[in-house]
Amino acid sequence: MSLARRKVLALAAGALALPAIHRAARAEAPLAERLADYAFRLRVDDLDAATIERAKAHVIDTLGCGIAAFDEPPVRICREVALAAGGGDATVIGTARRASAELAAFANGAAVRYYDLNDSYVGGLSGHPSDDIAACLAVAETERASAAELVTAIVLAYEINCRLIDALDVTARGWDSPVFSLPAVALAAGKLMRLDPARLAQAVSLALNDHIPMGQTRAQALSDWKGLADAEAARNAVFAARLAGAGITGPAPIFEGRKGFFALVSGPATVDVGAFGGKDRPFRIHQCGMKAFPAVVYSQTAIVAAIEVASEVGDLERVGRIEVATTRRGFQQAGSDPEKWAPDTKETADHSLPYLVARAMLDRDIGNDSYAPAKLRDPRILAFMRRIDVKEDPAFARPASNAPPTRVTATLDDGRKITRQVDDMPGFPGKPMTRAEVERKFRANIGKRWPAQRTAEVLQALWDLDRTDDLRGLMAKLAS
Q: pTM of this prediction?
């Protein structure tokens, strides 16, 4: 064989080996770079039809929650602050006015989350990845992104958010779950801004370094900030992506550094980015559930169990004690603080298992009006909650479904016990909402705000989201 021929074969062999070398190098790269590489490479062609359908369903659910909360005082305040700054190209949902992408992400995110009725993801921790949709819509509109780019960015935000929830326990050291929206939104926004991998990695570093939220947001008596923390994370992340796109660099390695995220926030962790969703690999958006009730995710099955127990008991005056058995996280978030037995704000009440179980048993439902001030002060509720104990059941550490299970046991005045355990319910991943169910919830959220014909037209436009060529026109349809 000639020397020239041997050189050609050697070069060819080297070229064939490059992908394997690249994969090995990426596996050893800092996590921010691996996340950035994944975000950069993800394409709409990697999304199957079921994933695109699921993304659209979550957009519809999310927007319905945001429109429902349009008139609530904290939502109005956030909207007015966003609009007061003037300028911008991103629609503030429910209006015909626009703000910067950062402030629209904040205002719209505040509306989406206010009722705690938007979707949830339950891994080792829980989160609300749909909080990131507001930012994706705002940046997509600002950047004149295509429908394909928008849907891909939404699926990407869900994937990053949920996979980091799976891998990192930030609550053990007292931090709060909106921290996962920082890299998720930074990457989704950066992708919509069409940043290269290097600048996407910088966006992650900039988003994380100065914006780690404290867990006090969800401890003891809860404030307005409970519903705004994720919106603020999105605002910071969009700004970080904008800075990175302009050439600003951030601290690195942000995760593995001597004073980085692993050392100070989560503890050591392994994140297998190679296992993230893609062609022939399922995306985490399919593991996200849609809520039936405007309350913390750990209460969803508790509310159903409480209603069933109350229906069998009949006269609740016969109830001597009630025991609510929940998961470890359910106990920590919604059943361990004394304030949960005397909630004086909506934010505390919708994260209180004693209140939610008591109110569900008395009213046979939980709705947005369950947190009216008069209901929080209702003497019957305050007295009834004193009969309720909440405990962690270790058997729920490995639930059989994606819904946090709950068991409610009422002990009657004659000693008889009535128990209901609910392990799953419609809306959670094992029983995802159908199109009809998504639309039913959307219509319930819209209420009488729009005529039925307009609601139907908006729903059809949203189901066509992946084919729209006029995102701004679509957002305009949501104005009150």
A: 0.90
